[in-house]
Amino acid sequence: LKYMKKIYLVLLLLPFFEMKAEVPTCKYDHTFIASGRKGVWPDSATNFMGGTVGAPYLQNVTIVVPLDTVTGLGTFTYSHINLTNASTCGLPPGLSLTGTPSTYKFPGNDSSCMVIYGTPTTAGTYSLTFKLDVYFTQTGNYLPYTTQTLTYYKIAIGGVGIATNSSYSF
Questions:
Q1: Which of 61, 57, 65, 59 is nearest to 28 (CA)?
Q2: CA distance 141 to 135
Q3: C-alpha dist (Å) from residue 60 to 1, 64, 161
Q4: What DSSP line would sit under 74-94, residue for residue?
Q5: Which helix (H) or strand (E) segment is 4 a member of?
Q6: CA distance 68 to 45
Q7: Tens digits of residue pLDDT in 18-47
Q8: For the whole prediction, is pTM greater than 0.85?
Q9: pLDDT digits (tens, 9 = 90+) for 90-113
């Protein structure tokens, strides 16, 4: 009877505790940062790792925004780069994206990161599209410079099990 009271107490309190999966914290690729290169790692040649339906997936992405750039009009200092389509970038079903900073506003002359995580639910090759709005700073004002769309990233999600070969029968 003593243990039954404890069990009932736990069952009564259980609805007050929200059970949530933990969102992973992204991790920087310190080798990429130390290399002095600017841009995104993994790059388009390396691409994102593949995954498997039903298996946890985690891909860290490091972003290093340069201080400035030189164009035909002169030298421009980066203010920040915004990822504007984080929720609609084409991730496989079951995967999510989060970043540091969580606003996906990556400051100029700094390192930031994102993480793609979750458990994929559908096999296939998914082409991702990242829309970036680039801003410069000039005389204390943020000026929109350009919008770039990155379309070269893919995530291949494999199925589970053994494929059927219709050429042979037993």
A1: 61
A2: 10
A3: 51, 13, 27
A4: EEEEEEEEEE--GGGS-PPTT
A5: helix 2-13
A6: 24
A7: 444 588 999 999 999 999 999 999 999 999
A8: no
A9: 999 999 999 999 999 999 999 999
